[in-house]
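Hi everyone, sorry if this is the wrong subforum. Our group has a chain we'd like a structural model of before ordering constructs, and none of us has done structure prediction before. Sequence below.
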Amino acid sequence: MLIKRILILCSALFIVSCTGIPDGVKPIDNFNLEKYQGTWYEIARLDHSFERDLENVSAQYRIKTDGNVEVINQGFLPKDKIWKKAIGNAKFVQSSDKGYLKVSFFGPFYGSYIIFELDEHYQHAFVSGPDLSYLWLLSRTKTIEPELMNHFIEKAKTLGFDTENLILVNQDSNR
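Answer:
Right subforum, don't worry. Here is the predicted structure as tokens:
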């Protein structure tokens, strides 16, 4: 019985830790999912195995009839000359007007998706995961102005992200 309680507690802690918020990162308020849906291009990221070496990375968000969000991530792996695609499901962690969602590509396991900056026209977004090792700059366009990149790096650095290891994603439109 004690072992069962410990396993339940450990499982609960694991689940909570994957949907947590890094210290200092604050999800945006007044979030509008309808305006956010559509295609976003990945401009910069911190490296993770699930995106390693991918180029031309994009994400598509679509509101489903149940109010959740279908997430379709895809990217091109040049060394193998193949497209990789992952389809997931996202749900709000708190209220639907806060940029704090959890997303799953693997069954019941969710990870945080925290939008901590979003321009008023929904053209660029700064996104974090559950800790400071997850960071993305997304844009509606495949290129951005240098001023926006500088702002992203400075804000991320101030929050404690390792901006020295940012990957600038190749968005070569010839693929």
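For your construct planning: The first helix runs from residue 2 to 18. The beta strands are 38-45, 55-63, 69-77, 82-92, 100-106, 109-118, 124-128, 135-139, 167-168.
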